[in-house]
Amino acid sequence: SALKKRLMELHNQSERAARAMNTVKTNQSQTVETASRKKDLIRSEFSEIKALIEEKENYTLKVIADEEKRVCNKFDYVYGILGSKKKEIQSLKDQIEMALTEGDDVLFLKRAAALQQMSAKDAFVPVIEMDQNLIQSTYQSAVNLKDIVKLSVTQSKEARAEEHTHKEKTLYQAQDTLRVEADTKEKKKPVKAAPATGTPNAAAAVSTKELIDSFLKKSREELLQYAANITLDYNTAHNKVILSERYTRMSVSDTPLNYNHHPQRFTDCSQVLGFQCFKRGIHYWEVELQQNSFCGIGICYGSMERQGPESRLGRNSSSWCIEWFNSKISSWHNDVEKCLPNVKATKIGVLLHCEGGFVIFMAVGEKHNLIYKFKTQFTEALYPAFWLFSSGTVLSLCQVKQ
Q1: For residue range 82-102, what is the model confidence (pLDDT) as tens digits?
Q2: What is the side-by-side order of every strand in the sheet holding 294-301?
């Protein structure tokens, strides 16, 4: 009886041990799967980093190649002029030699008098050289990028651990968003019976609308979990845009500021871009309009023109913005203006959802806070962008990270 009881206990123990072994095996395979998924995500991130660096490399090399071509074209032109000059001198030389063989004295004197009048100017080579400022600043931009990458790669273990935690948080946020999208798609499945609205595009549009609505219902505290601290990029600032308070405040100067030449600098419109760019994820930032009669707040692709009328925010297909012009508020994209109702708020929230394909401009602190929303499939990394027109205009970036 005691032995039977002992046997029963051993049997139960054996079963528990077998279950524990199964659990260990299951956990092990889950670990392998999780690590594999993470490795795929990391490969994807690094391939994007490489693509961004390659794009920067190609752009930088193109700046030098274009400058080389410009100067070589000038050399070709001068070479052609000198060739014509050489022919002209040779022709005059030939005519003088012909005149010297003339037997008729009267004809000789006539020709000699005419040839005395003719003269060929000396060959002149103008100073032609590459724009050293452009060459140096382009090279410097490559060095700066290398330094940033080097600094990022060699940062301390503590900073890496902190970054890892932040990445995890971002990933969970992205998963939450995907769950919201998945839920909305599930809800819409029965609609398939109606052929008119059963198209994938219609379903996607409904899904996007519900996703946007879900963000519009969020409180400011909830939006702050997506907070991005933006600083301004000195190399993009127009010659009349003053940057201050550690590159978070922008205003307009009455006189040019003589900034260094830089290929990313705006030359015609008094604009400046944020230093940070966003290719994926959800990002939120706030801008204070201290004087708001003539200014614009928006986003743009890094490839947006830097000179000419095409470089104005909202006047091209590469930028989206809200603009205050006197008391009038408008949205602008691809040179199309839409007049909007007036907004009292002086603090504007910008929420960018890269995968969702939308950007929302909100009046912070207002009950009905939507100013305007743009929906589109973003194809490039996006930068915060700002336009300041009159000398009284001041915009400040709020440091909102919790």
Answers
A1: 888 888 888 888 887 777 777
A2: 271-273, 382-388, 294-301, 319-325, 328-333, 336-340
Terminal C-alpha separation, the chain: 67
Cβ–Cβ < 8 Å for 282, 243? no
pLDDT of residue 165: 57
Give backbone dihedrals phi and psi of 62, rounded to 5 degrees, phi first.
-65, -40
- Residues 6 or more apart whose CB falls under 8 angstroms from that of 95 comprise 111, 115, 118
Residue 285: enclosing H or E segment and its boundaries?
strand 282-291
Nearest-CA neighbor of 249 among 397, 401, 399, 389?
397
DSSP secondary structure code for residue 261 in this structure: P
Q: Which domains does the chain have, with CATH numbers?
A: 157-216 (no CATH), 218-398 (2.60.120.920)
Q: Which one-letter DSSP state was computed for residue 379?
A: -
- CB of 374 within 8 A of CB of 364? no
For residue 194, the model assigns a pLDDT of: 35
pLDDT in tens, 133-191: 888 888 888 888 887 887 777 765 555 555 555 655 565 565 555 554 444 444 444 43
State whether residue 356 is helix, strand or coil: coil
The Cα angle at residue 73 between residues 72 and 74, in degrees rounded to 5: 90
Q: How high is the pLDDT of residue 167?
A: 58
More confident residue, 150 or 257: 257
Q: Which residues contact 345 (CB under 8 A, 6 or more apart)?
A: 363, 364, 365, 366, 369
